[in-house]
Structure of ABC transporter ATP-binding protein:
Amino acid sequence: MGGDPLLDQQLPSYPGADGLIAATHGEAVVLRGLTKRYDGRAVVDDVSLDVPKGSFFGLVGPNGAGKTTTLSMVTGLLRPDAGRAIVAGADVWSDPATAKARMGVLPDGLRLFERLSGAELLSYLGRLRGMPAATVQSRADELLRVLDLEGDSTKLVADYSTGMRKKITLAAALLHSPPVVLLDEPLEAVDPVSARVIRTVLARYTAAGGTVVFSSHVMALVEALCSHVAVMAHGRVVASGDIASVRGDAASLDDAFMHIVGASDVGEGGLEWLGSSPV
């Protein structure tokens, strides 16, 4: 499916967009000048970023830094005011059908078809993508087994725990074997067992050549999993690169993050009343 002429008229074009697509052979995701404003304030402010193919890429930043808004524009859930997002060689906003076929998405707070079972949900989503029924069945069975959902495959999604919901959504994101997976807080409120399963599956995915982009507030998790990281603050990317270069001489990525975003440690003074006997 080609681009929508009306969409191209409404969305400000980024100079050299065609050349940008042609130059993305080594990158899974390329952002140039991505911008989103609310009430005149730039929530995402001229963000440009390159995500190498096969990388495990973390997007980190304080609350309100613009991470979720950025991912929403990259995945086509939110229209940017300016700039371009290229995913696996396809422009997300001028060729959305191609771009969305090449990505798997796990957004934060995704609403699911709760009156379907886990197995039915995967079957339904696979057929929506036009996949052959036999392929959908085979891949769904394997994903349910690997993600430890096989015993709950006939249970309604409405009865799934938070961890199970995250896992079935990840299964849906991986079902069509996309080259890029974008995840917003994939391990938020997930129990340790489910979190470990998800981490293992994502590590296997990148080892096979896939690219993962995910946002997180947990620096230790990003440092343990990711090969690359971008730090956002006030809607801008303030640092980006492989983990070692962003960490620099700091003892940990958490320490480097605090320095990069200009945050200070909690002071020792004050709050002397904490822990004292009640009046």
The chain has eleven helices and ten strands.
